[in-house]
Each structure stands twice: as structure tokens, then as C-alpha cells.
Amino acid sequence: MSEDNILYVSFLWHMHQPYYKDLVENKFVLPWVRLHAIKDYYDMVAYLDDFPEIRVNFNLVPSLIDQINDYAENNLTDQFLDLTLKPVKELSPEEKIFILQNFFMANWENMIRPFPRYWDLLTKRGRYVALEELKDIQKRFSAREFLDLQVLFNLSWIDPYLRKQDPELSGLEKKGKGFTEEDKRLVIDKQLGIMKKVIGKYRGKQEEGQIEISLTPYYHPILPLIIDVEAAKMATPGIALPKEEFRYTEDAKAQVERAVLCYEKFFGRKPKGMWPAEGAVSEAIVPLICDAGIEWIATDEDILASSIGASPHKDDTLYKIYHFKSDHSSLKILFRNKKLSDLIGFTYAHVPPEEAVRHFIQELHNIQKRVCQFPGPHLVSIILDGENCWEYYKNDGRDFLAGTYQAINDDPLLKSTTISNFIESYMEAVPLPRLWSGSWINRNFGVWVGHQEDNLAWDYLARTRKMLAHFEQRQPGKYKEEVQKAKEEIYVAEGSDWNWWYGDEYRSGNSSAFDSLYRKHLMNVYTFLGEKVPDWLHIAICGQEKARPKREPVDFINPILDGKVTDYFEWQGAGQYDVSETIGPMHRRASIVKSFYYGFDLNNLYLRLDTNMELSQENLRDMVIKINFLKESPQQATIQMLQDGKLGLSLFDLTQVEDRESYQKIKDLTSISYQKIIELCIPFVDLKVRTGQAIDLVIVLERNNMELERWPSRGTVRVTVPGEDFALKHWSV
Questions:
Q1: Nearest to 578 by CA among 705, 695, 449, 713
Q2: How far does CA 265 lie from the centroid of its chain?
Q3: Which of 34, 237, 498, 563 could form a disulfide with 674 if both were Cys (CB 3.0 to 4.6 A apart)?
Q4: Kind plus residue range of the DSSP H or E element containing 527
């Protein structure tokens, strides 16, 4: 068969976790490197044992390799592991609370429900509980239940493929409950045994030629922004930048060079390829990467579109290898197919595996039919996170992966390949005259800079980096060890992960831990140098701006308050705050509130709450929903179940205390209803606001005076009282 008719397929699975290690304490703060190693890192490459003809690429971030090695060879631990190994009878109440709060951090449907005992323990704890509630809940858990929870949390994170292969682990899975301290030790020993095999497995597969391992700059920094934070202006000219300048080409160079050294240490050869962190590229990074001996990089198709000023899908544009020349540097670049990558990352988890495989192969055939009209060969690059998506798949994605690999292996029109092998054997690169500055997300850097929290994080980093530079100038050639340790902390803080969780694009159940750890890395710079840690580093970065809703109000509304969506268009003009978009993709727990809408006519404010739970009397009986209106004279609307089964709506004045325990009630309102949703109305006159005045609102859910949820979780949503010209100002066709 002609080479022009074959479509070459290159998977690149990007393996990465943030740097969780505190370099002063020499201990991991969070457990996700350990848990993903036993669930994803080893089995993803081990699957290939069953498909010897399949060729795959893996991108391993050097800071991840180091963390795996610290667990496997240097006996480092994390708080979760320490509390797992601690005998139940020695656990303090605070440690039991920590376990109840954190040991259900797994996909409930695919990782907890398959273990009936684990599911029962989740049900007993409650799905939606506040930290304060756990003080009482922990008293109701027996020692045996805590022991089972310690075991099941760690057992559930071991990939089901590995559990089935191991007789002792499969025996524990069948046992199901009533575990012993010896059982617990066995699970942890198995985890560490898996971790010890991870790096060697990748090295062996690369030596066999079945995989290619590429890398990312050491601590996963956004290289263009490290070189000059103003690189963000190419994609977003009007972006708000940090107050402090950040421009450290030498740091970017060190991140690349040290990554190469790490690769050589663990894999015994020089790397050929690189996935820059988040696919973030610019022309300025090319010389640094070329000087380190890297031959190719990969990024997103939208970067190609912006670089050439045209859609890459009009012919075979997307399926070629390009080269970009800058001064004395020449670097080959390939661009991932966004649709196929995102189908695996975000869609196929919700589709039966056989159907997903069939659809995926058909998509590849559609590409093959289109590009075979042009001189080949052609490469379709599928590049995505190789770990986080699988917990949303049944059986941790093995059925889909095995089916896909087998289908490609059996298909005469498709052939898997490593990227370097394709470049060396088949493709003459196409000149790329310009390289756009951006990332795989929206072809810009908006996730990492521009938001008030992002910019404050950059300012903290810039101040600390300047202090280090001044220290070196004052003490030239002295304190070399201390300076090197301080620089290491700077490199860690330059990683992209911190600003991923700042701003309002993504949220995590560990957001406060990320914030604390980021500032701790910067504090450590001062500590290593014997300098006083400045007060501003003790101030949390999280929660210093208004939340960004999914959409703002655009027209007057007049909904029927009947507790259901009577008409599709009745809330069409309202604003919407979507909770699911703010929690983020990593280890999120289900929330009670799904989203809320807010809108108005000239006289009234309307609110609608959509929930993830059934709005029954039983579920609402002990719950209080509070809507805080923050303005010059703050007020609060409270919603709670009345004895007659209806919802009561009352308005309180937060400036007037009626007695020591409650605020003064202004009035009871009747405009509220619930069935599938909660809908309510509050007149502006009762809120004591006038046209043009802004109201900041927050919705809080409580049970027994303990907070369950707060939306927005940080900040507020702003509503401006409309005038008669509001609809005209927002009119559009």
C-alpha cells in the first residue's frame, strides 16, 4: 500500500503532577504523585505488553520523575501515607477528622462504588459535609470503620488491572471489609513495589523501541512568561499584567538544561522531543530549546492556526511536520489534533467503550480519506493528559485503550508511530515563518496571568526573585549552598500549576493547600538565605476579586415562579454562575448547588437555584439557604422548609441585631417556589437599592448552623440595579 494512503497515528500521553515536596521539611504535602503512580503511570506503559506492535509516546516531566524516585528510593512520605500507616488506636480526633475529610478523594462512581464497604462508609459520613460537622461525625465511626477506610482508600487507587493480576490484592478486594493492620501494611508495600518499577518500565520500553519518552522543562514552567511575562500581550493585547516586571531568561534556560540532565540520568540517552508545559510556545523559547539539543516540540492546532492565519483543517495542513528557524536555531514542530485529544480527555468516559472505540477509529478514517488526496505521509498527533481523565472511565480506561490499540493494530490504513521515528523516516518539514505566542488553552496565557490572583502570585514571585538577585550581588561567591537551595525554590515556584488554580477558571478541593504550598516555597527562599520572611507572604492569594459568572444578565426577565423551567426562554436573559466550572477537574467532589441564575425587571430581583440533589422535604428539612446581599446596608434572605412543606423566604437586616443570636427580620416574602428548581423574587424596594447601585451576592448553604457550601467559594457575584434603558444597552441581533 502507498505511504500516501496510510495515516500515521501518534499518541503522546503527558504525565505530570505539581511539585508537592516541601524542600525544608523534605516531605510531600499532598499524595497525588504516589496515587497516580499506582493508578496510571505504571499501568499506562504496562498495557503495551499486550500490544507489541503499537508505538506510543510518553512525556514525563522531570520534577515528576524526581518525586516518584523520592518515594521509591529515598523513602519519602506524605501526610496521607503517614496517617494510613498510623494504627487506628493511636489516631487523634484531629487526625480522624482529616481522614474523613480526605480519604474519600476519589471518583465516587468508578472508584468508591465498586467497593460496597467503601460506599457504605461514604454514605455514613455523608456526601455533603462541612469540616465543622466532622467533629461530631468522627465520634460515630468505630475503630474498625477507620481501619477499613484507611485500607480501601489506598486499595481503590491501585489500578484494577494491577489488582486483578496480584493474588494478594485481589484477595483483599474480595475480602471487602474487616481489614487488619497487616492488610493495611500489605497494601502500602504493594504501592511502593509498583512505584519502584515505574521508571524502569519506561526505560525498558524505550530501549525496546516501543515508546519514545519526551520531556518538559524541569518544574513545568510556562517558558514564554518566564522569559518575559509581557509575552501574554501577543494573544491578548489589552491583558492586565502584574505590577512587578518578571523577565528571567536565565531561569528559563536553567529549567530546560536541568530537564535534559535529569532525562540523561534516568534514561541513559539524550532526549529528542519536548512538550513545553501546557503547549506554551513563543519564538523566544526556540533558541533555548535548540541549544539544549532538543529536535522537536509539540503544541496545539490553534497555535498553528494563529501562526499561519488560516484554519489548519482546510486541507492536510494539520498533519505535517513544520520547522521554525530563529537566528541560528531550527526546531521541528508538530501540532496536536484538538478534537481527537479532547474526545479522549473529556467525552469518551461517558460512552460505552466499544462505541467510543468505534467512533474514534471512524474519526481517524475520516481524516485518512481527506488527507490521502495530498502527497504524504501524514501524521495525526493525539496529545493529552495521561492520568487525570481515567478515573472518569469505567475500569480506569483500560477497555477503551485496549480496544483502540487493537483496532489500530488491525487496520491496514492506520499505523501507530513514535514522533521521532516518523520525523526521521518519512517527513520533510514545512517552513513555518511565524510562531504564535500562546498555549493549548484558548491560544493565549489567560489561565496563568491577567486575573488579579494570578497577577498577585507573579508579584510575589517577582519580589522574591529580585531579593535573591540582590542577595547574590551583595554576597558574590558566598553562601553558594544556601543560594542554590533558594534558587531551587524559585524554580519550583515558576511552575505552571500554582497559577492554574489561582483565578476563577479552575478550582480544586486542595486550592487552599496549593496556595499555602506556593507561598511556602517563596518563604523558603528567605529562610535558606537567613532573611526575614516578609509579612505579605503570609497573606493568602486566594479570594481577592469578584467571581466571574458564566454569563452576565443581558435582558429583562419575568419568570413564572413555579419551581420548574416552564419555558426555555424565561431565564434566557439572566446571568448564570456555573458551580461545576469553578470547582475544576482534579478530584472534585459533587456539590449540592449545580448553578444559579440571577436576573431582574425594573422592580424585582429574580433568583433561580439548580441543584444536584432531589428537592424533597426530607433533603431540605434541616437545610438553610442564605443569600447574602453585601452593600452599604447588608441584608440576608434565608430559605428554609416550613412545617406545611412549603419553603419560607425571609429578609433580614444584617446591621441590626434583634438579640444575641439573630438579626432583625425585615419581613417574610411569599414569592418563592420549588419542584425541580428553586425560584424566588425579592423587590428592589425591600433590598433598599436604587437604579445604578451595585449589589454583591453570595449564596451559602448551612445545616445545623454549619456551612456546607458557599458560592462563589471565594469572592462575590455583582448585580447592578437596572434602569429603563438596560435592555436597549444590551440589545443585539
A1: 713
A2: 30
A3: 563
A4: helix 511-528
Specify the DSSP element, H or E, that contains 368.
helix 353-371
Instruction: Show the 3-state SS of 382-405.
Output: EEEECCHHHHHCHHHHHHHHHHHH
C-alpha cell at 418: 513514535
Spacing of C-alpha 56 from chain mean position? 24
| Grid cell for residue 61 | 516531566
Q: Which of 252, 276, 286, 274 is nearest to 490 (CA)?
A: 252
What secondary structure, in 3-state letters, does 569-638 show? CCCCCCEEEEHHHHHCCCCCCCCCEEEEEEEECCCEEEEEEEECCCCCHHHHCCEEEEEEEECCCCEEEE
Residue holding cell 467532589?
589
H-run or E-run covering 408: helix 398-410
201 backbone φψ class: left, alpha, beta (φ>0; ψ -120 to 50): alpha
Give the type of residue at 144. R
For residue 59, give the nearest of 15, 10, 11 by alpha carbon: 15
Q: What are the tens digits of pLDDT across the range 252-279?
A: 999 999 999 999 999 999 999 999 999 9
Torsion angle of C-alpha atoms 569, 575, 579, 584, degrees rounded to 10? 110
| Non-local CB neighbours of 211 within 8 Å, separated by 6+ positions | 45, 48, 55, 56, 57, 58, 202, 205, 418
Cα torsion angle, 720, 726, 732, 733, sign: positive
- Spatial distance between the Cα atoms of 433 and 423, rounded to a whole number of angstroms: 19
Res 475: pLDDT: 85
Q: At what angle do helices 398-410 and 353-371 cross, to 10 degrees?
A: 40
Cell of 617: 422535604
Of 575, 574, 573, 608, nearest to 594 (Cα)?
A: 608
What single letter denotes the amino acid at residue 34?
A: R
Are 138 and 93 in contact by the 8 Å Cβ rule? The answer is yes
What are the DSSP calls for 299-335, one per residue? EEHHHHHHHHTS-TTSSSGGGS-EEEEETTEEEEEEE
What's the half-sphere exposure (Cβ side, CA atoms, 13 Å) at 9?
Answer: 25
Predicted confidence (pLDDT) per residue in 628-648, tens digit: 887 777 888 999 989 888 899
Q: Do residues 64 and 20 make contact, with C-beta atoms less than 8 angstroms apart?
A: no
CA 175 to chain centre: 34
pLDDT digits (tens, 9 = 90+) for 645-688: 889 999 998 766 554 346 788 999 989 999 999 999 999 999 99
Query: Is residue 417 helix, strand or coil?
Result: coil
Q: How far lies 710's CA from each of 595, 699, 714, in Å?
A: 12, 6, 8
Task: Tell me the C-alpha distance between 728 and 115, whole Å.
Answer: 57
Q: Is the peptide bond before 237 cis (omega within 30 degrees of 0)?
A: no
Instruction: In whole angstroms, give the CA distance from residue 572 to residue 608.
Output: 12
The answer to whether 226 and 248 are in contact (CB under 8 A) is yes
CA nearest to 600, candidates 468, 718, 480: 718
